[in-house]
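call fold(seq) -> tokens
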Amino acid sequence: MVRLDRIDTMAGTLAPRESAAINLEIVRELVDDIVLVSDDDMREAAKWLWTELGIAAELSGAATLAALLNGQVTTGPEEAVCALVCGAGTDGIIAESRSLNL
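ret:
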């Protein structure tokens, strides 16, 4: 079992405090890169999804888009990009409502 002392994110589904060791082994074997994005970056990506596409995503659902929008993931001119957005939520809507003073 792998256990973290604390979690410093609102996207708890991306950062469980405790996980089976096999999960870390799978990540080490199959994942090429890990990119860290901040809660603010995810919040901005969720806001973008809502205002531009009408998709209400939770913070963790907007994480891949946050990495793309911030240039943390780069691709070549011949590469196609797909950002998986999952998890319905109101993070983008709440962020937009606050900025509009609704």
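Strands lie at 2-3, 18-19.
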